[in-house]
TrEMBL record:
InterPro entries: G_CP_dom, NA-bd_OB-fold, P-loop_NTPase, Ribosome_biogen_GTPase_RsgA, RsgA_GTPase_dom, RsgA_N. This is Small ribosomal subunit biogenesis GTPase RsgA. Belongs to the TRAFAC class YlqF/YawG GTPase family. RsgA subfamily. Its EC number is 3.6.1.-. Pfam families: RsgA_GTPase, RsgA_N. The keyword Ligase does not apply. Binds 1 zinc ion per subunit. The keyword Membrane does not apply. Its main location: cytoplasm. GO terms for molecular function: GTP binding; GTPase activity; metal ion binding; rRNA binding. Keywords: Cytoplasm, GTP-binding, Hydrolase, Metal-binding, Nucleotide-binding, Ribosome biogenesis, RNA-binding, rRNA-binding, Zinc. GO terms for biological process: ribosomal small subunit biogenesis.
Length: 287
């Protein structure tokens, strides 16, 4: 039989096939080859008894993301907040770079808009100006359900972002199921992660959404060579510099640095690019 892994807990995989759930284990061959089935994987499995079985084959993946570790996604809803927890531009730019590198569409959801002032909200619109879709929401008083469903329709989407940014409340507004909601630590103003496992919810036909654990930070191991990073910043004009291999740092007649001087490229984005460039370079040199 063929189905999709919609949930995993330890060594148990819940596989949906023909609107029925099967509780499966993976054959030992996966462990021997150091291959781990992921939520989102399309798999072949054998049924051993009613509602139980063994996964025998993982079908080809469209893509894979490491944090959270999921497969076959069409788009990511990346949650951020201006306040409570406070905005972290470096993490945003690093995450967007990762999405660009693995070629996954990303929509930025600015949650808790009621806590931010107009100046803050206008500032974050710099991402909209470089082509990212932004949606500002208040999960409790102004939830744009119809707009969200239109974005999700016909796709498999993943919800991601740091702990405490409103992902669980967002999902509870969409899914007919109570999602455990955490609190914010008053000391750190960071959320307590409530999602302990990855799970897919089906909203309507061909419309699925992942519930994934939050993260506070993640490594830059999604990219091996710092010279590839420039292609992950979509506002960089990589074809108009004097040198084709320009990294937009110290090279002469660099179009990106010229755009930076004219404020076409935002200083925060460029500075985060430089920091990421050095991080990737140091990581590569320590291999």
């Amino acid at each position: 039989m063929i189905g999709k892994i919609i949930k995993s807990q330890k060594e148990i995989y819940y596989v949906l096939s023909d609107e029925k759930n099967y509780m499966c284990k993976a054959r030992g061959v996966f462990r021997n080859k150091n291959i781990k089935p992921l939520v989102g994987d399309n798999v072949e499995f054998d049924v051993t008894e009613d509602s139980k079985g063994y996964i025998t084959k993982i079908l080809d993946r469209k893509n894979q993301i490491k944090r959270p570790n999921i497969a076959n996604i069409d788009q990511i809803l990346y949650f951020i907040t201006i306040k409570n927890p406070s905005l972290n531009l470096f993490n945003i730019d690093k995450y967007l770079a990762m999405c660009e590198y693995i070629n996954v569409d990303v929509i930025i959801i600015v949650s808790k808009k009621d806590l931010a002032d107009k100046k803050d909200l206008e500032f974050i619109k710099m991402y909209e100006k470089i082509g990212y879709k932004l949606i500002f929401i208040d999960n409790y008083k102004d939830f744009p359900e119809s707009e969200i469903l239109e974005i999700l329709r016909g796709k498999t989407s993943a919800v991601s972002g740091s702990s405490g940014v409103g992902k669980s409340t967002f999902l509870s507004n969409l899914v007919e199921k109570d999602i455990e909601i955490g609190s914010i630590s008053e000391k750190s103003k960071r959320g307590k992660n409530t999602t302990r496992h990855v799970e897919i919810f089906n909203l309507e036909k061909n419309t699925n959404i992942f519930d994934t654990p939050g993260f506070d930070s993640f490594d830059i191991d999604f990219i091996d060579d710092e010279k590839d990073l420039k292609y992950c910043f979509r506002e960089f004009d990589n074809n108009s510099c004097k040198f084709k291999d320009c990294n937009h740092i110290n090279e002469p007649k660099c179009k990106v640095k010229n755009d930076l001087s004219k404020n076409i490229i935002k200083k925060t984005r460029y500075e985060n690019y430089l920091t990421l460039f050095e991080e990737i370079k140091k990581r590569r040199q320590t291999w």
